[in-house]
Specification:
Four Helix Bundle (Hemerythrin (Met), subunit A), 81% helix, globular
């Protein structure tokens, strides 16, 4: 859903991206997102949830900026997109494991984490069959926003449960969408 806003957000972010692009390459921003994810992990397992939430948000910001800088500064590479995707999965897993260690029910953590991974996997596999598969209501941006809000409001279990549900619905949506599109090609 938030991906529909990407062209608009990219456009208004161009001035910031041009400044950041003078100091950081997109892959460096990707790695800063991973580093922020590690900090979030350690803060969450130490039960410093609000600070952890802030670093989840910082990690997501770096994840957003790496793509904007790459696109606006004409630095898009196949490897950069690959690295970004892999690092995103590592950060997702780190955050879910941290929440499990923190005390959120492991079954709900497992269902949410598998759903988050399947959202990415279904898109990657679908785009080998059809041109584009960015449908669904729980892409990474939405999941990170739900997680951030759950962390700062104290509704961790409910937030992770919501992510679990929406992630699997998104993966299923992508399967059905790919099936319908592949029938026409």
């Amino acid at each position: 859903m938030l991906s529909k806003l990407k062209p608009f957000v990219t456009e208004i972010s161009k001035p910031v991206a041009s400044v950041i692009g003078k100091h950081f390459k997109p892959n460096q921003l990707t790695l800063l997102g991973l580093f922020s994810g590690f900090i979030a992990f350690f803060l969450i397992i130490r039960h410093e949830i609000i600070l952890g939430a802030i670093f989840v948000l910082i990690s997501g910001t770096f994840d957003f900026l790496d793509g904007v800088v790459a696109r606006t500064q004409k630095m898009v590479t196949a490897f950069g997109g690959f690295l970004d995707s892999v690092i995103d999965r590592y950060v997702d897993v780190l955050i879910f494991i941290a929440l499990g260690i923190h005390g959120v029910d492991w079954l709900v953590i497992s269902v949410a984490m598998s759903g988050a991974l399947l959202v990415s996997y279904t898109r990657a596999r679908a785009e080998k069959i059809i041109e584009r598969c960015d449908v669904g209501i729980a892409e990474r941006g939405e999941r990170m926003l739900i997680l951030f809000l759950a962390m700062v409001t104290g509704f961790l279990y409910e937030g992770v449960l919501l992510i679990a549900t929406l992630s699997h619905l998104t993966a299923l949506h992508r399967v059905l969408y790919t099936y319908s599109k592949s029938k026409t090609t």
